[in-house]
Design brief:
Helices cover 40% and strands 12% of the residues. With 448 residues, the protein is of the alpha/beta class. The strands form five sheets. The protein has a six-stranded mixed beta sheet with strand order 6-5-9-10-12-11. The protein has a three-stranded mixed beta sheet with strand order 3-4-13, covered by helices on one side. The protein has a two-stranded antiparallel ribbon with strand order 1-2. A hairpin with a 5-residue loop joins strand 5 and strand 6. The radius of gyration is 26 Å and the shape is globular. Keywords: Hydrolase, Metal-binding, Zinc. One of its GO terms (molecular function) is dCMP deaminase activity. This is Deoxycytidylate deaminase.
């Protein structure tokens, strides 16, 4: 911290301690680069291994040792650690319901007026070198709910370790299977803004629908890759009827184009009415309007949302009821989808990535809640389990499950992770990062 003119603060008062540490992290990233603190972590791991006999000459000695990093705050930090350690880096996305998080901060003596400020800053700042926990969280390999149930928390952590070391046979939970299907459905989307997938599971646990965001097609459903080679029955020839946005109507995002047009129109009218101060350019006003609620408008898109497509697919089939069902999606539903979810009779929604543009709980707080134990409303809750991108690697281990016709048993005390890399190459990469750190720390910072 001395490199940015700060010293380690006292723990008490805790809110000031948090604020100073957040500010210090930002200052270090701004001065030395977004991945600077990750580089310092790598340096500490290298030195610890070196000090404790982890090398034979320059060759790394394999050992059963794990290094625990308390937290990451910026996406550049995650990228560097992934680059160096590859699949051996396991990211745990630990979370708790909002009410519990606030209660814990209160118990630590933080004034109520400061709690929202601390949480909001931690989740995401506009500056590229700022706190961006929210963006890192969605790249977790495991999502773990840290609520008040300590025994359940221990069981979940033990299961995750068992999966990593393949010491027992585990199959996906209902939630893990449903979220994987939602994530797989998202791969069908050709939307240029974001790929969203959804799956719906009945109250009996059966998969009844999947959906993704894309442009609706005449006859029902959405355009897909198959529409590029569609057999025209009237001509008997293959034709391309794929009219998704990336190849239709100028290949533009129509929602974004419409928003920009609205802003330009408003500024133009204000200018023509003589309301703008003398010397103020229209371009300056347009720039000032960036980040306002106009940027949150989503109704001008040609695509139907994943949650809506999943609901409509049930209507097209006419075979299942949505009452009491659970919807899984990789992204928090927008307020438009949310109201249809309520009307459809779905009882709960499970999501991974927050969606800040959504006004679901503000517009429908009478019917939607994020409190997990409220049975009088549709509960929106954070996903807890194996991340979809880790699903196949963990549930399809290469190791044999049986030996001589019986279940093969592994000794947890000797088991190795199923994710491995070449240790010698890892040490070389670490050395390069450390050398780069030294250059940064001893290079004078330009006044510009």
């Amino acid at each position: 911290m001395h490199r940015v003119g700060l010293s380690v603060p006292r723990i008490d008062p805790f809110d000031q301690y948090i604020e100073i540490m957040q500010t210090a992290g930002n200052a270090l990233r701004e001065k030395f680069g977004g991945d600077y603190l990750a580089g310092k972590i790598i340096e500490q791991i290298f030195k610890f291994r070196e000090k404790n006999g982890g090398f034979d000459g320059k060759i790394s000695i394999p050992g059963r040792r794990a290094y625990i990093i308390d937290s990451l705050k910026n996406t550049d930090e995650l990228q560097l650690l992934r680059k160096i350690y590859g699949e051996t880096l396991c990211i745990l996305g630990v979370f708790a319901p909002d009410s519990i998080r606030k209660s814990r901060l209160t118990d630590n003596g933080i004034p109520h007026a400061q709690i929202d400020k601390i949480i909001d800053r931690d989740q995401g700042e506009l500056a590229t070198f700022g706190q961006k926990t929210r963006k890192i969280f969605v790249h977790s390999d495991f999502f773990v709910c840290n609520d008040q149930r300590k025994e359940e928390l221990r069981n979940r952590v033990d299961r995750n370790l068992s999966l990593i070391f393949d010491t027992d046979i585990h199959t996906p939970t209902r939630a893990e299977s449903a979220m994987y299907k939602a994530s797989a459905a998202a791969a069908n989307s050709a939307c240029m803004s974001r790929q969203v997938g959804a799956s719906i599971v009945s109250k009996d646990g059966e998969l009844i629908a999947v959906g993704w965001n894309d442009v609706p097609r005449f006859g029902g459903g959405l355009y897909t890759e198959d529409d590029r080679s569609f057999l025209n029955k009237s001509t008997g020839k293959l034709s391309d009827r794929d009219n998704r946005c990336f190849k239709w109507g100028g290949c533009i995002c129509h929602n974004e184009t419409r928003r920009q047009s609205m802003v330009s129109d408003v500024v133009k009218r204000v200018s023509e009415a003589g309301i703008l101060k003398k010397g103020v350019k229209e371009s300056d006003v347009i720039k000032a309007l960036r980040g306002t609620d106009i940027d949150s408008l989503i109704e001008f898109s040609r695509s139907i949302h994943a949650e809506m497509e999943a609901i409509l697919s049930v209507a097209r089939e006419g075979k299942n009821s949505l009452v009491g069902a659970t919807l899984y999606t990789n992204t928090y539903p927008c307020h438009n989808c949310a109201r249809h979810i309520v009307a459809a009779g779905i009882s709960s929604v499970v999501y991974i990535e927050p969606y800040l543009k959504s006004l679901a709980t503000k517009l429908h707080y009478d019917a939607i809640t994020e409190e997990p134990n409220d049975e009088t409303k549709v509960v929106f809750r954070q996903y807890d389990g194996v991340a979809p991108h880790t699903y196949l690697r963990l549930f399809r281990p290469e190791a044999e499950r049986k030996l001589s016709g019986k279940r093969a048993l592994k000794d947890p005390a000797a088991a190795l992770p199923i994710f491995r890399i070449q240790l010698d190459a890892q040490a070389d990469y670490e050395s390069k990062v450390i050398a780069d750190l030294s250059d940064k720390e001893h290079t004078p910072i330009s006044a510009n």
